[in-house]
Amino acid sequence: MIYRLPPLNALRVFEAAARHLSFKEAAAELHITQAAVSHQIKSLEEYLGVELFRRAGRGVQLTEAAKAALPRLREGFDALAAAVETVRERADEAELSITAPPVFTARWLMPRLADFAKKEPKIDVRVVANSRMVDSGALDSPVLIGTLNLRSDASGVEIHLGQGEYPGYRSDRLFGVRMVLVASPDLIDGNPSLKKPEDLAHHVLLHDDAMEIVAHGNAWQKWLEAAGVADRVDGSRGPHFSSNILSLEAASQKLGVALALRPLIDADVASGRLRRPFEVEVNPRSAYYLVCPEVIAERPAVQAFRNWLLEQATQ
Q1: Which of 104, 127, 146, 188 is the 20 to 30 A CA-CA neighbour of 57?
Q2: Other Cβ atoms within 10 Å of 285 Cβ, number
Q3: Prior bond to 192 cis, omega within 30?
Q4: Can you say whether the dihedral through the CA atoms of 15, 17, 18, 20 is positive or negative?
Q5: Contact 276, 269 (CB under 8 A)
């Protein structure tokens, strides 16, 4: 069968521009000029005889014809990448990049990673802590694909805290989380003490950006409502931190009271570094997921890490 297709490069440019709804961002991703993007799009429109984009403010919008074609085009690219993957000769992989939220990386993954290194000594891991792995919604698929070179022998996986909606990617649920309150033992037993939830009115509340995303709003307000003291404690006051790692460190230094996620905080509580003065828990309906593109899901390094991670998550 003879396939009548436009130039593959033009299709690739169209897919990037459609994904970003921006010629400028597509040019940056593909390492070409914005003028080159415009030229490729114009050539593709002339080949197809239809308009693909319309100007909308500073960006562009897809026409109905483009919207109809885009899903099938992405399926085609996925199939092409998978086909190339099956015919490539691949030596034993030696690199695996793992990107995960900072608190998951520090509190859960790092204490266990030596076990993976012992079981898979030929795989060198590169661990990256990134707050963007805490999802405000479904996975923004261009973020993951944009950071992964599928032509490289190195593989990459991501661990997301979210709702589990990752179309086009293979995802495995690791475990759910529950939001709890923690503080330094010295602060709990100090003056003023922290014996009842209403005592929080006399303590500093530590906020962090990641917890706000997990709670889909004011995390402290939701915890205070669950504790029945939202009308007696102002949940908006207190300093803000960019990540849960920082707010937990501030709590351990007796700077205030923080919210944390179980089971990530369990080791700190068991060691006595932090304490949970109350049993109140809030379920944010989020969980940690291992996510990777389907095209690399069967690579040896990815499979080895997946099998190990799922085993650890069930313990």
Answers
A1: 146
A2: 10
A3: yes
A4: positive
A5: yes
Q: 272: which 2 tokens?
A: 């006595």
Report d(CA 288, CA 306) in Å as an integer. Answer: 13
Please name the amino acid found at residue 86. Answer: T
Residues 6+ apart with CB under 8 A from 302: 96, 155, 157, 292, 296
CA–chain centroid gap for 61, Å, is: 27
Q: What are phi and psi of 157, to 5 degrees?
A: -130, 160
Number of H helices, E strands in the chain: 13, 11
Amino acid occupying residue 137: G
Which amino acid does the sequence have at 234?
D
Q: Is the pTM of this model over 0.70?
A: no
Backbone angles phi, psi at 56, to 5 degrees: -145, 95
Tokens representing 168 are 């086009």
111-127 pLDDT, tens digit per residue, is 999 999 999 998 999 99
Contact status, residue 286 vs residue 176, Cβ threshold 8 Å: yes
